[in-house]
Amino acid sequence: MRRALRIMALCIAVSSLAGWALLGANRGWTKTSIDHRQLDLVTGLEYPVSENRFVPGIDLLALSWISAAVLFGGSLIRLHRRQQTTTHEI
Questions:
Q1: How many CB atoms lie within 10 A of CB 9?
Q2: Predicted confidence band at 83 (pLDDT cuts at 50, 70, 90)?
Q3: H, E, C per residue of 45-75
């Protein structure tokens, strides 16, 4: 059980870091739309364009690392079971 919790914590930490890096590695808050400027070919003026795209931020990365830390911390807890002693009276 302890080993499974540690492996799950490691998988969460590594996969969240890889996903965060592959999807944009935004060091701000998580965004669901990106604004960028586009050039009009006829007039030569720039205008803002909003694109719907998910970019995970540092808040999502921190939340996943906190959950991985909680799982790892849960693997360190030791539960002692009491052994029942039986007495035989004659």
A1: 20
A2: confident
A3: CEEEEEEEEEECCHHHHHHHHHHHHHHHHHH
Q: How far apart are the C-alpha atoms of 41 and 6, rounded to whole Å?
A: 56
Element (H, E) at 33: strand 31-39
Q: What is d(CA 51, CA 10) in angstroms, rounded to the nearest whole number?
A: 34
Q: Which amino acid, one-letter code, is at 67?
A: S
CA distance 82 to 39: 74
pTM exceeds 0.85, yes or no: no
Q: How many CA atoms lie within 13 A of 53 on its CB side?
A: 10
